[in-house]
Amino acid sequence: MGIHILTLCYLIASVTFILGLKMLSHPTTARKGNLVAALGMAISIFGTIFLFEHRVDGESAHLHNLPLIFAALFIGSAIGFVSAKKIQMTAMPELVSLFNGMGGACAMLISVIEFYHYQFTATPSPNDVLYLTHKLSTLSILAITSGLVIGSISFSGSIIAWGKLRGVVKDRVFKGQRALNMLLLIVLVSSVVILVGITPSVSYVSTESIDPLNAISQTFQYISNLHIYLFYGILALSLIYGVLFVFPIGGADMPVVISLLNSFTGVAAACAGFVYNNQAMLTGGILVGAAGTLLTILMCKAMNRSLLNVIVGSFGGDAAGAAAS
Amino acid sequence: MHTFLDFFHQHVEIIYIVILSVFLGIEVIGRVPSVLHTPLMSGANAIHGVVVIGAIIVTGQAQPDNYPALILGFLAVLLGTLNVVGGFVVTDRMLEMFKKKK
């Protein structure tokens, strides 16, 4: 029963996100649109806390660790509310960037925790094995790793953008920066491909029809040390890439970059939504990813520049280009 | 080829949701006036805070003695909430300022 109401909650949330974005793009309804989206968010968050069910020992159970979750919700709300209320009008963009980074970090941490669960295959209880075998498919590792990469880039990039707007971080340009970024990106993508490639596909294994003993011997080979090194290597590379990506971009272009990172976090949220097969996260994330990308392009247009110009045509890009030629 | 078709068949609903959401996201903000760019960015920033749901699920599923997962989960929920609450409040303040100017 509860899980059905929760599905309805997610539907309501998805609709409010769409309505909210729609109303936010008209001057007369913008403020109301923000409230509508916030209401949908509250419904989906409290619905998840009280109605979400998962399988433990073949029986459905509600979420536990509720005191911990409420403590985190309370502290997060308090800090978020106070800092948003107290901030100077002129400092708002940097706060948006900081909040965006927090969202990226959240997506990154979700991926890390999900992967951490998989690491515990050495001494599995039968239930763990069922859970792992069921969930560790090529697809879920792809979703987890994508969430990790995009979330981490968004996190470290947003922190640098925040630092730049505050004037703490200066534009850093050095020779061959563009080439280094390209190289890093290639290494990053190939690491993800390798990690996904060495994970055998075990999707479609149903929890009922599996033989636990057999499953234990199977899961042993799923997570090797190579998996673990690759995963945390990818985490580190993504964080570094986020920093290097934002470093050379000029201070005046910062709003565009924040908007771009904003749409990144949206995609990261959608990846996490895929891991949990959660419609509210999927629609919310993809909506923001798509709308954010368009908004980034519109912002560039408003400044009479192209997106490519902002990203690679910055001073750093020019310097690297000049050095190359 | 077969794996691909199989994959498509298994996840056809999600694929539909993703594709339609992409078009919807583009369509829905298509005619935003440039004065609203920053508030809209801030509002979208708050909406992707929906990722906090995933953090709540992963924390709620963690075994009570799995401290690394609990600590990271606590952090994830905290940061996600910061994103959601801070995002909506700061957007509201931006738009409030907007109204006064008018």
What is the gist of this entry?
Chain B: Keywords: Cell inner membrane, Cell membrane, Membrane, NAD, NADP, Translocase, Transmembrane, Transmembrane helix. With 325 residues, chain A is mainly α. Helices cover 76% and strands 2% of the residues of chain A.
3D architecture notes:
The complex is a heterodimer of chains A (325) and B (102). Chain A is 76% helix and 2% strand. With 325 residues, chain A is an all-alpha fold. A two-stranded antiparallel sheet of chain A has the order 1-2. In chain A, a hairpin with a 2-residue loop joins strand 1 and strand 2 (59-62). In chain A, helix 1 (2-24) packs antiparallel against helix 2 (30-51), helix 6 packs parallel to helix 9 (225-246) and helix 7 runs antiparallel to helix 9 (225-246). The longest helix of chain A has 29 residues, at 138-166. The radius of gyration of chain A is 22 Å and the shape is globular. The model of chain B has no long low-confidence stretch (mean pLDDT 89). Chain B folds into 2 domains: 1-31; 33-102. Chain B has 102 residues and is mainly α. Chain B is built from 5 helices and no strands. The interface between A and B is large, with 103 and 79 residues. Chain B: Residues 15-100 form the NAD(P) transhydrogenase alpha subunit C-terminal domain.
CA radius of gyration of chain B is 19 Å
Strand content of chain A: under 5%
| End-to-end C-alpha gap of chain B | 59 Å
Q: How many helices of chain A does DSSP assign?
A: 13
The number of helical elements of chain B comes to: 5
Strand elements of chain B, count: 0
Order of helices and strands of chain B: HHHHH
* Structural class based on helices, strands and sheet pairing of chain B: mainly alpha
The largest chain-to-chain contact, stated as pair and per-chain residue counts, equals: A-B, 103 and 79 residues
What oligomeric assembly is this protein in?
heterodimer
User: Could you estimate the helical fraction of the residues of chain B in percent?
Assistant: over 70%
| Mean residue pLDDT of chain A | 82
Assess the beta-strand content of chain B as a share of residues: under 5%
Mass-distribution shape of chain B: flat
N-to-C order of helices and strands of chain A: HHEEHHHHHHHHHHH
